[in-house]
Design a protein that fits this description.
With about 280 residues, the protein is α/β, with parallel strands linked by helices. It has ten helices and 13 strands.
């Protein structure tokens, strides 16, 4: 009987030892997997505009986190310093501008920022709180337009298409313009050049005001759209980075661009913004 009891005790001890060893191995394996996952994660910092840019990034943010890409939006209020902050390595990417604007900034400031992906188009539009149709806009109407060279060209171009003005050949060739490039006023109007940030706050002073769709969306304005760019506008909003961005961060930004260009995100853009924002053509 004593021999049998001894054998049973030995068996119990062996089983207990095996269970403890297995548990320790499993724990070590789990900790190893967690550590490996953490090691693979890459954080990228960015500055984006509020609407629709931050909404699009937030739409893909969780999916990217599952792939080890951690998005840290330092600001959702892009401004005139955003490219400078990207160039100086304060952030890894930005998402607020189209390529002609970036190209102009690089030339003026000796920058080294590059476009890594076209995401969406925000057709620049002419709005009015006073009139419902183009035909109602009176002679000598005051029209506010953005004063940076590229967006001013876009504003003047839709005024030309709508039959108000005629631009000279230089504007069309360079895709840049100011009031000095207006060759003829087909319908007399007063053009007022303003910083784009001040147009909506002062819109009550004008018969017509022309601004970017994202600013109209952010402000939640209900003004009548009189006319706007077509869906084939070449001014797609882009994700921009430094040309010397570290390889791991560049790979993470490329994953962000891929997610923003995906069919799923393109459908989200179409469903949410209903033509006010449209997916860019993928090159």
């Amino acid at each position: 009987m004593k021999k049998i009891i001894s054998l049973i005790l030995l068996a119990v001890l062996a089983l207990t030892s095996l269970t403890a060893c297995t548990s320790k191995t499993a724990k070590t394996s789990t900790e190893g997997t967690t550590a490996a996952t953490t090691a693979k994660s890459v954080e990228i910092k960015g500055i984006v505009d509020l609407v629709p840019h931050s909404e699009l990034v937030n739409y893909v943010k969780d999916k990217l986190a599952a792939e080890g890409v951690i998005i840290n939006l330092v600001s959702t209020a892009a401004d005139a310093t955003t490219n400078e902050r990207t160039e100086s390595k304060e952030v890894d990417f930005n998402f607020f501008q189209h390529y002609p604007y970036l190209s102009e900034w690089n030339t003026t400031n000796g920058g080294h920022l590059i476009n890594v992906g076209d995401i969406h188009v925000e057709p620049i539009s002419a709005y009015s709180d006073k009139y419902k149709t183009v035909a109602e806009v009176p002679a000598k109407a005051k029209v506010a337009i953005p004063n940076d060279a590229t967006n001013e060209y876009r504003a003047l171009r839709i005024l030309e298409i709508a039959g108000f003005i005629k631009l000279d050949d230089t504007a069309s060739k360079n895709l840049k313009a100011s009031k000095t490039n207006v060759k003829e006023y087909l319908k007399p109007i007063e053009l007022v050049e303003l910083d784009s940030a001040t147009i909506i706050p002062t819109k009550g002073d004008f018969d017509v005001f022309i601004t970017n769709v994202n600013k109209a969306l952010e402000a939640g304005i209900t003004s009548t759209v009189l006319f706007k760019e077509g869906e084939d506008s070449p001014y797609a909003n882009i994700v921009a980075v430094r040309s010397d961005l570290a390889a791991d961060k560049r790979a993470a930004v490329d994953k962000l661009v891929k997610a923003l260009q995906s069919d799923d995100t393109r459908k989200f853009i179409a469903d949410k913004y209903k033509g006010k924002v449209i997916p860019a053509k993928i090159k």
